[in-house]
Write a sequence for this structure.
């Protein structure tokens, strides 16, 4: 071996050595990170005690505003926040359903309830004025932006009807932003009057449909992804004012919207879902990689965590699996619609 060859060999060896050390270091760093995230997930989901809602004004005469409160998840938010000792403003489309829930809440929990009925898809200024008038003098500390609409069945984006497309964006995004612009200043004033002894809380319902780009639910998926970025940005803005802002991420829950009636390991009912949400406010649960975001239900949390730690939410493989799932849901929904139509004819 010549001197030149020897020098080349030695330097090649040290490059290989440093490359191996570097790779080991990165591996140790990644494994440590994974171990810490897994520990945080376990603590958040199963070990830490439930959050005490006194810090958000429960049992002190404060109010929570809940949208989409006449059914499903929103109705449960209203019931469980009332059970914790908050007065409730119920907002939704159907006056008669709101009246029934208001009566149920007042008789069960001895708190005050106010109701506001409007169709959020109209984006009418009178909708927001109605909220403003009702809450102007109330010490509101909590807002739950729950109202939302999805596609009636999975549908190719290019075949999405104009009304469905516009309603999804108007209800999920425009109305949510406008309602927050009306309610958040009242929450800020309440928190400020308490010298920040009481905190404010703004929860917004996200979805796995927004976490993972979802073919055949493209408009809904985009509307919920919008809420993810908006809510996390707002969290940064309102933190200094003593208001916690959180996006709540959910996979399927039994409800009119999901059209699923039977619970399973991965599909809770609204009661179970909301219980886990309110238990773990301020924690990330399955959303360990995201600021001001919470995937609270244990099975959803593990799914979120596993996807994030493996293929990633924006990967080709996640997109393909999601597409296949929604293609098959569409086929079944179309078959069902055809069957119902033929039964109607007979
Ligand atoms: N269920 C799931 O699997 C699931 C999964 C992930 C995320 N989410 C999100 O969770 C939230 C609640 O969903 P859900 O399944 O509980 O829905 P749901 O059972 O269909 O209830 C929807 C609620 O919103 C109200 N609402 C609907 N359209 C409205 C409009 N145009 N104007 C005013 N109010 C309106 C309904 O009022 P009426 O009773 O008067 O119709 C009802 O109170 C949504 O944001 C949804 O995207 C749900």
């Amino acid at each position: 071996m010549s001197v030149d060859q020897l020098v080349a060999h030695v330097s090649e060896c040290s490059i290989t050595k440093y490359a191996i050390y570097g790779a080991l270091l990165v591996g140790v760093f990644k494994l440590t990170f994974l171990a810490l995230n897994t520990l945080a997930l376990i603590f958040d989901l199963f070990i830490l005690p439930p959050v005490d809602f006194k810090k958000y004004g429960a049992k002190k005469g404060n109010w929570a505003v809940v949208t989409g409160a006449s059914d499903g998840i929103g109705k449960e938010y209203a019931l469980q926040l009332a059970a914790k000792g908050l007065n409730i403003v119920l907002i939704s489309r159907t006056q008669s359903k709101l009246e029934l829930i208001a009566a149920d809440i007042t008789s069960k929990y001895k708190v005050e309830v106010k109701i506001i009925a409007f169709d959020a898809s109209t984006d009418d200024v009178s909708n927001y004025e109605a909220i403003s008038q009702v809450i102007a003098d109330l010490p509101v500390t909590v807002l739950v932006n729950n109202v939302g609409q999805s596609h009636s069945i999975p549908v190719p984006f290019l075949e999405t009807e104009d009304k469905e497309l516009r309603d999804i964006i108007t209800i999920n995004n425009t109305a949510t932003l406008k309602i927050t612009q009306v309610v958040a200043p009242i929450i800020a004033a309440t928190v400020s009057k308490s010298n920040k002894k009481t905190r404010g809380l703004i929860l917004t319902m996200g979805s796995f449909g927004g976490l993972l780009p979802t073919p055949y639910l493209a408009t809904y998926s985009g509307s919920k992804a919008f809420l993810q970025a908006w809510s996390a940005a707002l969290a940064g803005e309102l933190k200094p004012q003593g208001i916690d802002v959180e996006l709540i991420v959910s996979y399927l829950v039994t409800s009119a919207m999901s059209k699923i009636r039977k619970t399973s390991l991965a599909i809770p009912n609204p009661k179970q879902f909301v219980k886990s949400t309110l238990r773990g406010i301020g924690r990330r649960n399955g959303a360990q990689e995201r600021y001001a975001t919470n995937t609270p239900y244990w099975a959803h949390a593990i799914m979120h965590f596993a996807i994030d730690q493996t293929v990633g939410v924006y990967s080709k493989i996640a997109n393909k699996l999601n597409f296949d799932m929604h293609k098959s849901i569409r086929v079944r929904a179309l078959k069902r619609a055809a069957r119902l139509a033929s039964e109607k004819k007979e």
User: Anything to note?
Assistant: The chain has a mean pLDDT of 96. DSSP finds ten helices and seven strands in the chain. The chain has two domains: 1-47, 52-333.
